[in-house]
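Bug #77: duplicate submission created two jobs. Keeping one. Sequence:
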Amino acid sequence: MEKIKVIWFQAGGCTGCTISLLNSSSLKIKNLLLDEIVPGKIVSLIFQPTIMAGSGEKVIEVMMEEGFKKDFILVVEGVIPTKDNGIYGKVGEKTFLEILCDLAENSNGIICIGSCSSFGGIPKGSPNPIGCKSVKEILEEKGIKKKLINIPGCPPHPDWFLGTITKIIANLPLTLDELNRPIDFYGKLIHENCPRRPYFDKGKFAKSFSEEGCLYLIGCKGPYTYADCPIREWNGGTNWCIKNNSPCFGCTEPEFIDGNSPLFKRKEIEKIGE
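Kept job's structure:
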């Protein structure tokens, strides 16, 4: 039995990405960890602070020991503070910045789960007093060259992560876009499959949340946000932002959150609806 070792490092964040994953319905987390989702291969989750039984210094030691043995996939959740050498984010008396660099250097590749690790997310928003940066930015600054996959979203849909890591384990082709996102899940605009698209085509726009119509005028970022939310839906396929009468906030894009604010105000773009 081949063990695919995974170290899940949580940096600065709200743990929402982990919680989203634990609520998966198509493939349960227990199946990922206990079953052969690919014949002859099983995931060995060495470190994941939210769901593992251990805690304290010993588990930090295990994470770093395994990290220096190499041959593992590094999953990063959360943003990395960099100001003053990263002192504003620490675990086990080491900064997130130090731990990320040590683990990244020895990993086979990196999966950034969530908008924080992928692009900086909400913590990177202005004024960003502690210098939060994405994993990609830090790797480029430190000259660490590793295969990188971004799974953005605030939080990301569990299928996006599970589908990606399953393809990796199975050695199946994984096509990424220019932002290192899997095309399988981030290949089309929300706008293309939005159930309110017919309203847009007819020029019928809602001006308040209680009205029928396209939500573009009240801040919907769907026309330039890539994700398959309309066809996948959330919470076991029961709902998603626009179905719940809320505009899309564009949380899978690098502009989130400063570039998409104010959230309930229309953002002018050159082309729309093509």
